[in-house]
Amino acid sequence: MKTWPDCIPCILKMSLNVAYDIFKERQDITNLFDNILAIESIQKNRYETTPPEIIRDIWKLLIDRTGITDPLYEKKRLQNSLALNVYPYAKESVIKSYDPFKEALKWSIGGNFIDIMAGINNFKKDDFIRKINKMNIDEDAVYELRNRFKKSKKVLYFCDNCGEIVFDRLFGEILKDIFKLDIFFVVRSVAVLNDATKEDAFSVGLNKIGTVLENGIIEPLPGFILEKASSELIKLMDNVDLIISKGGGNFDTLSEKKSLKGKVSFLLQAKCRPYVLMHGIDKGNLIVYNF
Q1: Which residues contact residue 46 at a Cβ distance below 8 angstroms, ignoring those fewer than 6 apart?
Q2: What is the reported pLDDT for 120?
Q3: Could you give the CA distance from residue 132 to residue 180 in angstroms, rounded to a whole number?
Q4: Which of left, alpha, beta for 67 (phi over 0: left; psi -120 to 50: alpha)?
Q5: Of these four, 10, 11, 45, 223, which has the most CB atoms within 10 Å of its CB?
Q6: Over the chain, what is the mean pLDDT?
Q7: Sheet containing 242-246, strands listed edge to edge, beginning at the edge strand earlier in sequence
Q8: What is the C-alpha to C-alpha distance for residues 171 and 192, in angstroms, rounded to an integer?
Q9: For residue range 242-271, what is the model confidence (pLDDT) as tens digits?
Q10: Domain segments of the chain: what residues?
């Protein structure tokens, strides 16, 4: 997905929030923000590139100005901790449900609500659970996704945020139980935003149910560009039966690769107007898009 006008203020707000986490002085924040506004991908090419590529350029600038390679490290740990606290309830809910596949799928996508980029200072476990239970999901899309899993033996699973990966683990456990799959979880090689790295994946136990791989992209990109990935991962993408892509950043970049059509299913939330308009659903609902 190329950048929409809506994406620019969203990216700038996110960047400003990170700046306030790092700096205490108004002048430092002002200087950084002025530098962000001058970035070429914002000034000249914003509608010809994807949102993750703009964020990459901002993150590079942030690292250059501060020397901090993972400014949200502690907050990512907090996200995982909050999610792990909910995990026992979520697993019991899934196991007891009429349709464990659908229920685990909802938790996996809905887990993105635990998001420091959207604010988690007032996170309440009961409110989070109620949100998951109220989420709507397209039954026809779920049916097609289930059929894709039935036909698969090897699945490549692109992870997104910390916190959310706890429920990817739950979904993975159900997938292995029902379909007897081999799952390869892909995480970022370089820290960016609150996205999961290999350390995060191991800390929540993804390695216990599948193979955890880094994407091999040696820049802070909150998405996936095939040409920048490791040769190992590119080869694996050719050999697996199904690719699962979690979150907006992976959707924005992977949906540009028409060669993957018929092999990728995107799982994300309709957090913004572009996603709402593209997928024809209400804001806040869950998206299952079988590409």
Answers
A1: 3, 8, 54
A2: 60
A3: 26
A4: left
A5: 223
A6: 93
A7: 211-214, 182-187, 154-158, 242-246, 264-269, 286-290
A8: 24
A9: 999 999 999 999 998 888 999 999 999 998
A10: 7-66, 73-290
55 and 222 Cβ atoms separated by less than 8 Å: yes
Q: Which DSSP string corresponds to 10-50?
A: HHHHHHHHHHHHH--SHHHHHHHHHHHHT-HHHHTSTTTS-
Tell me the C-alpha to C-alpha distance, in Å, between residue 97 and each of 18, 91, 182: 39, 10, 24
Secondary structure (3-state) at 120: coil
State the amino acid at position 255 in one-letter form: S
Beta carbons of 217 and 229 less than 8 angstroms apart: yes
Pairing of strands 264-269, 242-246: parallel
Contacts of 109 (CB under 8 A, 6+ apart): 135, 137, 246, 267, 268, 269, 286, 287, 288
pTM reported for the whole predicted model: 0.94
C-alpha distance from residue 63 to each of 25, 67, 218 (Å): 18, 5, 14
Amino acid in the structure at residue 225:
I
Residue in 187, 171, 148, 79 with CA at minimum distance from that of residue 291? 148
Closest CA to 165 of 200, 191, 135: 200
Candidates 119, 114, 162, 122; CA nearest to 14 is: 119
Domain 73-290 has CATH 3.40.50.150: no
> Residue 75: what residue type?
K
Torsion sign over Cα 265, 279, 228, 60: negative
- Look-up of token digits 């216990």: 208
40 vs 265: CA distance, rounded Å: 32
Residue 277 burial (CB count, 10 A): 12
Pairing of strands 286-290, 264-269: antiparallel
